[in-house]
């Protein structure tokens, strides 16, 4: 009997060791980070900035996959239905919390379908216009918009994306009218702004900086409460007659609901190490991104706040997608 118990203890210990080995083995294959927008937008730029270092930390390749369209819901759906094993992740943005107010029905639950991994960072919006527009400052643009008929046009990365919501907030505060042209991502939207297809865009610094330096688009203001250190001479919207005006574009990483806790913790630690790397800090700071690197609980609180915030804004702006 004593011998039997000894054998059982040995077997249990072996199983425990095997279990620990399995847990410690993650990741055993490449990880796919889904960007729910086409290439060359801010989310894509940030994901690619950190992917190589993240792969080095994890010991596996991190593959960026662009799955744009339908206001980021296509890429989000892919992650929502992926195996809950940590190998398919989502780079979520403001669209994630706005879409429930915009779409009549979604094939996933914004909260229940996901496990939050980490808040990566955020960046303010940057108001830019095509150089052909007869305005050198934001007040001049507002004056021009008020007297232009038919109305001026603005482009965005899609209905319900950060640029769309931020622009509608600005339109409401400025008391102007503009016509929305939605695209499938910030990259395609920028191409048409450069071509003069429309006149106004709220973009993020990573995708606008090169074009601004080349003189292909004209910056008017930033949407943060404080000026950006990367462009200290650029005034804020709040400074130009709209006290308290502030909108920021955030990026967080989510995994499918049910992803094992140890896997989520491994991913979180890897992202934190990546975001603390001096070269990554330098690159993202140059891009105008404020690194946050806060855990999933921080993301959960933000998502909860924004899910309460967007319905009123979306309804007032008349944003709806069938």
What amount of the residues lies in strands?
Answer: 15-25%
Query: Structural class, please?
Result: alpha/beta
Terminal CA distance reads 69 Å
> Biggest β-sheet: count, sense, barrel?
8 strands, mixed
Number of domains: 2
Weakly predicted, low-confidence segments? 18-23
What would CATH call the architecture of the largest domain? 3-Layer(aba) Sandwich
- Total DSSP helices: 11
Integer-rounded radius of gyration: 22 Å
Order of helices and strands: HEHEHEHEHEHEHEHEEHHEH
| Basic shape | globular
Find the CATH topology of the largest domain: D-Maltodextrin-Binding Protein, domain 2
Give me the count of strands.
10
Portion in helices: 40-55%
Mean of the pLDDT scores? Answer: 90
Pick out its properties.
alpha/beta; globular; two-stranded parallel sheet; 2 domains; 11 helices; D-Maltodextrin-Binding Protein, domain 2; 8-stranded mixed β-sheet; 322 residues
Give an overview of the whole structure:
The strands form two sheets. Strands 1, 2, 3, 4, 7, 8, 9 and 10 form an eight-stranded mixed sheet that branches. The protein has a two-stranded parallel ribbon with strand order 5-6. The protein is of the alpha/beta class and about 325 residues long. It is built from eleven helices and ten strands. α6 (about 160-175) links the parallel β5 and β6 (about 180). The chain folds into two domains: about 25-120 and about 250-315, D-Maltodextrin-Binding Protein, domain 2 (3-Layer(aba) Sandwich), CATH 3.40.190; about 125-220, D-Maltodextrin-Binding Protein, domain 2, CATH 3.40.190.
């Amino acid at each position: 009997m004593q011998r039997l118990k000894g054998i059982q203890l040995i077997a249990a210990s072996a199983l425990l060791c095997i279990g620990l080995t399995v847990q410690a083995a993650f990741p055993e294959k490449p990880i796919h980070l889904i960007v729910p927008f086409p290439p060359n937008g801010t989310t894509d730029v940030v994901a690619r900035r950190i992917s190589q270092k993240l792969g080095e930390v994890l010991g596996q390749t991190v593959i960026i996959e662009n799955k744009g369209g339908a206001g980021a819901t296509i890429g989000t759906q892919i992650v929502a239905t992926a195996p809950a094993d940590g190998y398919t992740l989502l780079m979520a943005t403001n669209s994630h919390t706005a879409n429930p107010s915009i779409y009549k029905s979604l094939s996933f639950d914004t909260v229940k379908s996901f496990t939050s991994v980490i808040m990566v960072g955020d960046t303010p919006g940057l108001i830019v216009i095509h150089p052909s527009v007869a305005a050198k400052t934001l007040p001049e643009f507002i004056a021009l918009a008020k007297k232009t008929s038919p109305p001026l046009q603005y482009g965005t990365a899609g209905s319900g994306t950060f640029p769309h919501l931020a622009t509608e907030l600005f339109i409401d505060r400025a008391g102007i009218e503009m016509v929305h042209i939605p695209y499938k991502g910030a990259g395609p939207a920028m191409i048409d702004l450069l071509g003069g297809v429309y006149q106004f865009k709220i973009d993020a610094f990573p995708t606008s900086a090169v074009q601004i330096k080349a003189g292909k688009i004209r910056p008017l203001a930033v949407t943060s409460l404080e000026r950006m250190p990367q462009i200290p001479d650029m005034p804020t919207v709040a400074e130009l007659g709209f006290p308290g005006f502030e909108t920021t574009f955030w990026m967080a990483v989510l995994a499918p609901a049910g992803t094992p806790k140890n896997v989520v913790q491994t991913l979180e630690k890897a992202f934190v190490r990546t975001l603390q790397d001096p070269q990554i800090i330098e690159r993202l700071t140059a891009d105008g991104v404020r690194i946050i690197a806060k855990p999933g609980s921080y993301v959960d609180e933000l998502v909860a706040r924004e899910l309460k915030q967007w319905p009123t804004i979306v309804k007032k702006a008349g944003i709806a997608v069938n």
